[in-house]
Amino acid sequence: EGVAPQEYTLVKLRIHDDHIPEKLKPHVTSSTAGVYLAAATLRPETMYGQTNCWLHPDIRYVAFETRLHGILICTKRAARNMSYQEFTPTYGQFTILAEFLGSELFGLPLHGPLSHYETIYVLPMMTIKEDKGTGVVTSVPSDSPDDFAALTDLKNKANLREKYHIQDSMVLPYEPVPIIELSPYGRLAAPTICQQMKIQSQNDRDKLVEAKEQIYTKSFYEGILMVGKYANTKISDAKKLVRDDLIADGKACPYYE
Ligand code: A2H
């Protein structure tokens, strides 16, 4: 824990209404404002490039009712934090409607706000930490080396897909989307640096830390968003503009820890 709180943007990935998990169905009524996986991100301006959502197979997630954001799914730790940030009807309290292992949610179809892809799926990532953010990560393989490495693992390893009952159609058609120009890497910075550094999989931890360091700060200061309402805007400006629009549209909210 640092001294200053970390501010995340919590992006609401809506589970398609016809795929609400059985355990939650008794709690969903006509007045429920949707059921969402709550992904914590530092890069709201990259949401155009979402290709999937990551959960850890063995982490426990809870579903709880919020005042303004429907039913959210995240780690219990994050739900507790949210209860102190006015997400729930009673300060400091949250009512667990259902619990899931990440593996129980794999293959669910979602709508990711702003995503180039109409439907994205819940897939496994082994490097998700329980004690950071919400334990739910939205995947942007064009600009996150971790996401690119994990998606490449799933594409290359049929046995990994089989182990978690992931259909080929949930993974193979999904390509990184060119959304940010970052010289000298081009418009697919994460795939480019992963290739340059010969990163083989999501388990190449040291190399991935270095890849992240090389492009993260550089993207903030030198990257140009190429798509959407703020096309041709520097990332340092676009970040807040896209974030504020997502929040104004009810598709995201601030989350601190
Ligand atoms: B970022 P920090 Cl395009 N375990 O979002 C592992 N990683 C997690 C996580 C968890 N529990 N919770 C969040 N994250 C990821 C986008 C993105 C991110 C891009 C580029 C870089 C990047 C799309 N994924 O992060 O340690 C989330 O991925 C590079 C640091 O709390 C979140 O932002 O600072 C970031 O790590 C939060 O990391």
UniProtKB/TrEMBL annotation:
Species in which this protein is naturally found: Adineta ricciae (Rotifer)
Family: Belongs to the class-I aminoacyl-tRNA synthetase family.
Signal peptide: none
Protein name: leucine--tRNA ligase
